[in-house]
Amino acid sequence: AAALGALAKSYVDSLRATKRLPAPPGAAAGGDAPTDDEPPHVLFWSLFLLAQHHDAVGEHAQALALADECVAHSPTIVELYAFRARLFKHAGDAVRAAAEQEACRRLDLADRFVNTKAAKYALRADRHARGRHLIAMFTRPGDDPEQYMIEMQAMWYPVEIGEAHLRRGSRERAMATFTAIDQNYVSRHSDQLDFFTYCHRRASTRSWVALVRDDENLDANKYWMRAAAHLVRLYVELYGELPAGRRYLRLSVSALDADDNDVLIPPVVYYFKPRPQRAKRTIGVAAAAAAA
Question: Average pLDDT of 123-133?
Answer without folding.
Answer: 91
